[in-house]
Each structure stands twice: as C-alpha cells, then as structure tokens.
Amino acid sequence: MKKINTTVNGIPRELMVSPTMRLIDLIRDVLGLTGTKEGCGEGECGACTVLLDGKPVDSCLVLAGQVQGREVITIEGISNGEEMHPLQKAFIEEGAVQCGYCTPGMILSAKALLDNNPNPSEEEIRRGISGNLCRCTGYKKIVKAIQAVSSGEV
Amino acid sequence: MRILDYYQPSTLEEALVCLGRSSGSTKLLAGGTDLIIKIRERSVEAEYIVDLVNVNELKGIVCDGDKLIIGSMVTFAELELNPLIREYTLILAEAAGTVGSPQIRNTATIGGNIANAAAAADSLPPLLALEARVRVQKAGGLREVPIEEILIGVNKTCLLPEEILTDIVIPIPQVNTEMAFVKLGRRKALAIARLNLGLAMNMAGDGKMVKVALALGAVGVSAYRVPQVEELLQGKYLIKDTISDACNLISRVVADKLGSRPTAPYKKSIAGAALHKALEDIKQRQGGC
In this predicted complex, what is the ipTM? Predict the structure, then answer.
C-alpha cells in the first residue's frame, strides 16, 4: 500500500492503495465510480477510457501509481451539476446510445477531441474515436452526435 | 500480481539505483501498455517495478548538431505531432500515428516499443531505415548501440537487466532523402501489423538512388534490414523494371526467411505489394521521373 495523491473529477484525493492496482479498479472499486466500464482489459475496446491530464487513456492499462500527482476525469466528472454535458445530450438526442456500454468511453474520447479541436472534420472525428469499439450503432449516430456538438446545435 | 514494491524515481540516477537493488526481478515501467497486460496474464513475473514516468531526462525531442535525440519516454502521440520529427524523419511520425489507438498513443512510448521488441512493433522498421542508434545507461557506464543489434528475437533484446534505454539517436537524413512507411493490418485502428516497412533513400539530383535503407517488420522474429534489395536498388533509377525486380526480390527474401511457416505465401505476396507501394509513392513525389 502506498499513499497516492490524485485529483479525480476535480476533487483532490489521498488514497491508500496498492500502486500496482489498475486505474480502472481504483476508479470502480475504491472510488465507486462505476460509469467507467471494463470491456477487454487489454486496450482494444476503449470502454474504460478516462481522461488523464485531459488526454484519453485506457484505464485498464494504467496503474494507480502512474496517476500520482495527475488529474483523472471520468464520465461522472463532465456534467455541470445536474446539467448534462452537451455531448451527453447530443448522444441521447441523436440516438447514439443503444446498449450504452461503450458510451462513457466514447463520450470521453469525443470530449478530448473537441477540447483540442473544436471543429473536427468527419475523418478527424472517426480517428478520434477509433480506440472505442461500439457493437450496436455502426458509429454513424455517434459521429452525428459529435458533429452536433461541434456545430453548436446542442 | 505479486509485486513487492513500486518505485517512482525522479531522476535517471535514482532510477539506476532502484534498478540496481535487484535488477533480475525488476521491471521498468515505461507507458505500460504491454507490460501491464503481461503482468496480469503472468507471462512476465516481476517483484519490483520502477516506473519511469517522472524521469525528465528521458523525455523530450531535441536536435543536437546533425542528430535528433529522442527520449525513450516520448509517447507516440508526441512523436506523431513533433515538428522536428515531422520535418526530418516523417516516416517515424507516420509510423507513430498508426500505433494502436489515440488512448494507446497517449501512453505507449518509443523506448517501450523498442525494449518490448515485438515482431510487429511499428517504430522498428522506420528506426532501422533511419539507421537509429540507442543509448543505454547503467550505473557506471553508457553505451550506444545500433538498433539492429538490440533486437535479438521475439520480445528479446540484448539490453541487460541493470540497463535503462535512455535515448534514441537518429542521424538527420541528408537533403534529397526520400522516405516511405507502409503498414498492412487487418483494420486501421488497433491493428497489429501483418507487415510494416520503412524505406529511406538518398537520391542524386537526376533521380538515381544513391543509398537505400530498407527494413521490414512482422516478417520473422524481429524487424530487419533487407540488404539484398538495398543493393539491387542502389545506383539505379526508379523505373518500372527496377521496381518490379525489387518487389520480386523482396518476395523471395521473405519466402526464404519464413520457410514452411503457414503465413509464408501471404507475407511473400504482401511484402512485394508493400514495397511496390513505397517505391511508387516516392516515384510520384519525384514527379514521375
């Protein structure tokens, strides 16, 4: 066990955990933030995507020790109180959520993309979410939802 | 995981001390995208982990005279966008952009890619074609080794347990150097290369190929240079017959290399196709001469 200082969704945390615990286990089992999903456990599916210092990473491939002194954002951390993030609204409005399992990771990848590049082309959007698998939607509605946010429709 | 301790040194010197305590059972953690999976599936046993995330000496990309020096902890996302890399060694930026996914590229490092030494590692063919060397540090000694000497098998390098790969050194290519990178995978994102190819060639003003460096990955146990094809191309012009001779030759080299392996017929044909694409791309950029 080691003391790890990290900021999760804007809240500074001092945690006594094993530094070799995976970040996804820290998020889900220690912090109880179950919005982050585990899919493949080896970085192929992106369901466990979180933002680390603003950049999307697979939380199944990061150890707790690696987030020492850094900032983690999970899907729970992007709404403004009760008000959903525009990407969350757009995903619902465009029907970009079906089973929902990929959605938290997909939205965080999309957020990182738009934070960096507010007006991405369709190709840039597809590349931005290329590390997130969705087996329901065929991606079209996901791309449309992201476009709706970048064009200011949502 | 049965990990006894986890160190997070903030300097290279401290990292070497941590590593020196019990180097045989210690693993260096770079980005973690390979190591964390291997530890979980127990194909790698480690009692101690030395996490290099805070070692600033291993970060950054600088131009030092006629060389580019890339810190081993530089991520593929950084490599893909770095202006120096894009200006002088575009194939390395292109290869970096094909690694895994955005999430993987934000974490995985070039040093980790080399030290992990996967047969299909995307950085290796470009690094071989660019004649990169790596700097390796241990307590009391630094050595610089050509990249091909580091690679000795699938997931095997000649790095010693007490050594840390600190930098990748690339001689800045001469003007009039043309380059190409080709990766063939089953899909665009998250593809483990079925074959990857790096090519760098210095061309005379009249379009004659003066010096050619060609490397293949995912064909055999480690990435390697293909001197037979380099020799065939050197001194010639990029015309149709030369291109087709080179593609036939690389297919034969690959067929010999893979022998009776089930993938041999497929890899033989895609090696020819990949080289064809690389040479045609360069020819077109040269204005079709």
Answer: 0.97
